[in-house]
Amino acid sequence: xxxxxxxxxxKERHWRQLLARWQRSGLSVRDFCVQAGCSEPxxxxxxxxxxxxxxxxxxxTPPTFVPVQVVxxxxxxxxxxxxxLPGGSVLRLPADCDAVWLGQLLRHLERPSC
Length: 114
Description:
about 50% helix
């Protein structure tokens, strides 16, 4: 019967530190392994194994859902009436403009200024 693969946390920590040193060193794998006194095949094997472990043990972050409330867009006021004054000014008034008020405004605007 095959023996289950038991993880040695000390070995894993050692190789993680070694790989981190290699990344900071800027050396090729071969030069680093010679300098560190480790075998190149072991280096590649541990690098592959640690990458595999990181992929399989990384927690998957579930998607986050936030509540959304859809509201109707408020109606935009539309200018149903445009009054162009003699000086070139333009009055844009909504369709539901009070007729009495509009009449007073126009009479006031027709008056000559002092």
